[in-house]
Amino acid sequence: MKKLYLFSGLAVLIISTFIFVENLKVNQVHENGTVVKAKIVEMSSSCRGTKNKYIKVSYLDRLYSIRIKTPYCESHQIGDIIDIKRLPGYERVVLPEEPMKNDLLFNIVLIVIGAIVVLVGIRKK
User: Fold this and answer.
1) What is the residue range of 21's domain?
2) What pTM value is reported for the model?
3) Which of 29, 54, 65, 100 is the most buried (most CB within 10 A)?
4) Domain tally for the chain?
5) pLDDT > 70: percent of the chain
6) DSSP annotation string for 35-92
7) Beta carbons of 5 and 120 less than 8 angstroms apart
8) Are residues 39 and 68 in the same domain?
9) How far apart are CA 89 and CA 94, in angstroms?
10) What is the pLDDT of residues 18-36, one digit of tens each?
């Protein structure tokens, strides 16, 4: 049982840490990025359901993919010019109204849970 706690706790801790680092990069773009105009060149085939929805936008002859929520999908179409935030040196772009703080908070909670599970595994006999 001790090994189960250690391995599962370490898995949660490592995966959460990698996701946290990626979310920090996205947060940097969100906080320090410049708002630019981009053209929607592709959208998910369906705005309904729980399937991931995305748009692809073109900015300076480069394509970026952005995950979106259903209301955004329903109010935009291919060819629309939209605002995106980008930061030179970063591969990701974000929508200016995209909330970021919840993702970071969720990652911190997962990291803490992983650390607690590892500590419980270490203390188990």
Assistant:
1) 1-32+98-125
2) 0.71
3) 29
4) 2
5) 92
6) EEEEEEEEE-S-SSSSS-EEEEEEETTEEEEEEE-HHHHHH--TT-EEEEEE-TT-S-
7) yes
8) yes
9) 14
10) 999 988 888 889 889 999 9
